[in-house]
């Protein structure tokens, strides 16, 4: 019997546009598709674990249709891969690349260790399935990485177009033997909120395609005009699918190129949507070149920022009980659905950092624990952007007014009232400052309980944050 090739699924839970899997299928060897639960990797929150479990189950079924069998393992990948390569007499291990610091160092260890251990003669190959442009290929004029998005994306657009997506394999040759190291697919830890989240999402490759088609039909036309309005169906909601690789950026790019000639899609809409794919690329570009930004301020001046320790305020923010309706609606959306609209993410993050003066890392950790799309690159880059401590960051003195933001981006109150039903009978003019109604001794006619007063006054919080910022500029 010919040798075998081990294909290691990671954040690429799909068959189409999967170059490592296609390479394995075309190798003429038996293919062992695997997924490893790595205890050294950053632990996922319950929502993301639920998504991964659902997606892996869909992937397992899809592989069976083409003759493959997905096997699950737990342990350090270098050790698991060594045992499997010995058992199956594999002479090749292939995977698609990841770009965060831990993944890069882990993969280097595997490439350095396995070819020279055990039976030897093991070839390790990695492929790009997650990005339009590899991080090391986009350089500024000095030959270094970009720290600002706009020139980065301009440079990307000035070069060669991204590669076309590759087709899915039509058949896999499975190995007849079964190793003794396999484990069952672990059950999802998500229980209480699983039904609520399942109502909102359909994990898996087919679900990703359907979501993308729905966006093209219903949201793309209004994307440029309404993408900042959380009550409008104007965003793609593809981020969890991209996070787990159920759809690739090349597939998105290719489809958009196909549909952009349609007269109902303006050039502005197409450019803005592709720029959001570009921001994802930029986030991976940064985390690859500066892996320490996962835990450290990219701007060293923020190392001296006088953050406050306020556990009570942090818990109120997490629960959606700050007294600012748009902030609270976002935090309650997150708890209920595992997701939050991007504009509202910026507003809730700004409130934690600048109104409450709590370290951005506390917010990043909570989002990581709660988001379905918690991504090692996007989550970090977004939080440092809001804090002003990262690359291409919004200046710290840009402090969102949660009242004005609500009035501007939820003008009918549909989004806020959906997640804060106790405010559903409030007139729109009072919705984002309900404490004013209380001060006028008006009857709020709350439906469900009493909505809290603000935990901090906006003007005071803004001045306090600006004073703190001046301290680190001296």
TrEMBL record:
MF annotations from Gene Ontology: deoxyribodipyrimidine photo-lyase activity; DNA binding; FAD binding
Cross-referenced InterPro entries: Crypto/Photolyase_FAD-like_sf (IPR036134), Crypto/Photolyase_N_sf (IPR036155), Cryptochr/Photolyase_FAD-bd (IPR005101), Cryptochrome/DNA_photolyase_1 (IPR002081), DNA_photolyase_1_CS_C (IPR018394), DNA_photolyase_N (IPR006050), Rossmann-like_a/b/a_fold (IPR014729)
Highest taxon in the source lineage: Bacteria
Site location (Electron transfer via tryptophanyl radical): 307, 360, 383
Positions with a binding annotation for FAD: 223, 235-239, 273
Name of one Pfam family that matches: DNA_photolyase
Coiled-coil residue windows: none
Class of this enzyme: lyase
E.C. no: 4.1.99.3
Entry cofactors: FAD; (6R)-5,10-methylene-5,6,7,8-tetrahydrofolate
GO biological-process terms attached to the record: photoreactive repair; response to light stimulus
Entry keywords, A to Z: Chromophore, FAD, Flavoprotein
Annotated cofactor note: Binds 1 FAD per subunit.
Reactions accelerated catalytically: cyclobutadipyrimidine (in DNA) = 2 pyrimidine residues (in DNA)
Photolyase/cryptochrome alpha/beta domain boundaries: 3-132
Family (UniProt): Belongs to the DNA photolyase family.
Annotated protein name in UniProt: Deoxyribodipyrimidine photo-lyase
């Amino acid at each position: 019997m010919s040798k075998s090739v081990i294909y290691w699924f990671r954040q690429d839970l799909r068959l189409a546009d999967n170059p490592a899997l296609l390479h394995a299928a075309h190798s003429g060897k038996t293919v062992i598709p695997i997924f490893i639960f790595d205890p050294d990797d950053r632990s996922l929150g319950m929502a993301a674990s639920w998504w991964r479990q659902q997606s892996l189950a869909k992937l397992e079924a899809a592989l069976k249709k083409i003759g493959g069998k997905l096997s699950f393992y737990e342990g350090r990948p270098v050790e698991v891969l060594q045992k499997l390569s010995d058992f199956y007499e594999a002479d090749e291990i292939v995977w698609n690349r990841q770009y965060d610091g831990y993944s890069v160092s882990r993969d280097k260890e595997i490439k350095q260790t396995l070819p020279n251990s055990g039976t030897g003669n093991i070839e390790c190959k990695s492929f790009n399935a997650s990005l339009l442009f590899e991080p090391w290929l986009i350089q500024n004029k000095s030959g270094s990485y970009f720290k600002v998005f706009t020139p980065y994306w301009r440079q990307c657009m000035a070069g060669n177009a991204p590669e076309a997506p590759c087709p899915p394999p039509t058949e896999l040759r499975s190995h007849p033997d079964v190793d003794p190291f396999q484990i069952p697919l672990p059950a999802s830890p998500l229980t209480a909120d699983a039904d609520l989240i399942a109502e909102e999402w359909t994990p898996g490759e087919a679900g990703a395609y359907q979501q993308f088609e729905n966006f093209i039909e219903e949201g793309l036309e209004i994307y440029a005009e309404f993408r900042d309005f959380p009550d409008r169906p104007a965003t793609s909601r593809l981020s969890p699918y991209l996070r787990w690789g159920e759809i690739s950026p090349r597939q998105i790019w290719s489809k958009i190129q196909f549909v952009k000639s349609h007269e109902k899609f303006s050039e502005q809409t197409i450019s803005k949507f592709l720029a959001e794919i570009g921001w994802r690329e930029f986030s991976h570009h940064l985390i690859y070149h500066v892996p320490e930004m996962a835990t450290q301020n990219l701007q060293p001046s923020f190392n001296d920022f006088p953050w406050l320790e306020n556990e009570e305020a942090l818990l109120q923010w997490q629960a959606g009980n700050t007294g600012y309706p748009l902030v609270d609606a976002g935090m309650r959306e997150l708890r209920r659905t595992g997701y939050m609209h991007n504009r509202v993410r910026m507003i809730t993050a700004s409130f934690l950092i600048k109104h409450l003066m709590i370290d951005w890392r506390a917010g990043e950790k909570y989002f990581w624990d709660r988001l379905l799309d918690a991504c090692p690159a996007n989550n970090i880059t977004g939080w440092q952007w809001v804090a002003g401590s990262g690359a291409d960051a919004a200046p710290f003195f840009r402090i969102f007014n949660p009242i004005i933001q609500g009035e501007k981006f939820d003008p009918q109150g549909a989004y806020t009232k959906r997640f804060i039903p106790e405010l559903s009978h409030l007139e729109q003019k009072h919705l984002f400052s309900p404490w004013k109604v209380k001060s006028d001794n008006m009857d709020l006619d709350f439906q469900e309980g009493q909505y809290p007063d603000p935990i901090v006054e906006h003007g005071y919080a803004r001045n306090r944050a600006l004073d703190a910022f001046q301290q680190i500029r001296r």
